[in-house]
Write a structure and sequence with these properties.
By secondary structure, the chain is of the alpha/beta class. Strand 15, helix 13 and strand 16 form a beta-alpha-beta unit.
Length: 473
């Protein structure tokens, strides 16, 4: 008895507003409309007359007999996926058959084992044609080594409606050609970039400059030194003006610092509010472009708190967001030796992170899950050099494991060196503080020296496990 427009409203509610964001594993949600179409002739008519309103899609997997079943339905958009079928024992013929409908495919999600027949799918004739309706492209190679190089003719070199590109361990030198036709990309994530998929930074930056709709960018290299080694290349002079990416809000990078420097010299992102950077270890970190880039971002340059966290294989400096008005900034360096961790993070803090000079709260932490193999011969001066750029720091929080490493260094700040480091410090909060003992006596020497300069420092217990917003003291 319900009129068609009421039925359509109910069907729309049943299908769900987020159907476009569903992954290929959500078969029941993607093809939930088929259940409605099977109820009766009238329901089927209402459903099929509103393909855009109900966002009708057909899911094609290795188990879908595409050549036999696709003709049953109208020419609806196709989601082609084998993400649950990466092994060599699954036939590729059904996926290839679905990809032959290149004018209907809107979403491709392929999990490829290069050692199996799946490794030949990107090179198949079906994938060398233009895909005019494709909006989402996911390719992942699951082997330790990258799969066969994706040819320049992949997708016919054109996919004008692409909005999302995620490549994982995929050598695709034709990517830049594809990006020329896909200027509406919103998310570009390149993970585990192999040497055979290396793109020079100035070329990458030029390609990015055309992506004015880009909101999220990830560039993660697999190796510390892309080919050719950046330090042996003659650096290209940066352009007089930077390309503006007006919608870019997030950057995630993992690789050599020289590569990131070349990128940041050529682009700007006025709306950026989240930046995560991971560097492979090296002797010298020279990052003037990173410093300038962060300095131009008000949401990144003035955080309220900073965390320095030591891990067994890395050290991380993070400025977490405190409110919706502040962004998140994180720089991680991959290294294992204790003295190298301190030296590298000191360089980055001193030369590359403008928030350091205005920060008032600093937390020094260690990974609680995995033990650190800390060297016994680490020089105290390395700790003092690390703390030196924090000129505005008022509150220093030390986790239980870090206290015996930092306290001896603070003891050296006596006499003429009393306010050489942390001149504005007012409070030290120690996790696991004991009322007496050699550690407490060592801290007392530092406190007594500061008292003589009329810049007193108070030592208090820090309850790190507290769930209070203010870290109950």
């Amino acid at each position: 008895m319900l009129p068609n427009d009421v039925l359509l409203e109910i069907f729309d509610f049943y299908v769900g507003e987020d159907v476009d964001d569903l992954g290929p594993s959500d078969k029941r949600r993607i093809e939930g409309w088929i259940t409605l179409a099977h109820v009766g002739r009238r329901w089927r008519s209402v459903v099929l007359q509103s393909p855009h309103r109900l966002r009708l899609r057909l899911l094609c997997t290795p188990e879908t007999p595409a050549r036999d079943t696709l003709d049953i339905w109208p020419p609806l958009p196709l989601i082609v996926c084998n993400s649950a079928y990466g092994s060599s024992g699954v036939d590729t013929s059904n996926i290839i058959a679905a990809l032959e409908h290149n004018d209907r495919v809107c979403h491709i999600d392929l999990y490829i084992s290069s050692s199996s027949e799946w490794g030949h799918v990107p090179n198949s004739p079906a994938m060398q044609k233009p895909f005019p309706e494709l909006t989402d492209l996911w390719l992942e190679v699951n082997d330790d080594e990258p799969g066969p190089i994706v040819p320049d003719s992949f997708l016919g070199g054109t996919a004008p409606r692409l909005r999302l590109v995620i490549l994982d361990n995929v050598p695709f030198l034709g990517l830049l050609k594809l990006l020329l036709s896909a200027t509406h990309i919103v998310k570009l994530h390149l993970f585990f970039i192999p040497r055979s998929g290396y793109i020079p930074p100035e070329v990458m930056a030029t390609s990015l400059s055309a992506l004015t709709s880009l909101e999220s960018l990830c560039l993660h290299f697999r190796h510390p030194r892309p080919r050719p080694a950046l330090e042996t290349r003659r650096p290209h002079p940066p352009p007089l003006t930077r390309s503006i990416l007006p919608n870019l809000t997030g950057i995630s990078f993992k690789g050599a610092c020289e590569y990131l420097e070349e990128i940041l010299a050529r682009i700007d992102a006025p709306r950026l509010n989240k930046m995560q950077v991971t560097f492979f270890n090296q002797i010298i970190f020279d990052l003037p472009q990173l410093f300038q880039f962060i300095s131009r971002r008000p949401m990144l340059r003035a955080p309220e708190k900073g965390h320095i966290t030591f891990y067994p294989d890395a050290i991380d400096v993070t400025f977490p967001p405190q409110t919706s008005d502040h962004g998140a900034l994180s720089v991680q360096i991959l290294c294992t030796a204790s003295d190298w961790q301190l030296s590298s993070v000191e360089q980055v803090c001193t030369l590359s992170l403008p928030p350091v000079s205005t920060l008032e709260d600093l937390y020094i932490l260690e990974d609680q899950a995995l033990p650190l193999h800390w060297q016994d011969d680490v020089e105290h001066t390395l700790w003092l050099e690390l703390l030196h750029p924090f000129d505005a720091l008022k509150n220093l929080y030390l986790c239980k494991k870090s206290v015996p490493r930092i306290a001896p260094a603070l003891q050296e700040l006596v006499g003429g060196r009393t306010i050489e480091v942390l001149p504005t410090l007012e409070n030290i909060f120690l996790e696991g503080l004991q009322p007496s003992g050699p550690l407490q006596k060592g801290i007392e020497k530092f406190v007594a020296a500061r008292q003589l300069t009329n810049r007193p420092v108070t030592v208090s217990h820090w309850d790190r496990d507290s769930k209070s917003e203010s870290d109950r003291l």
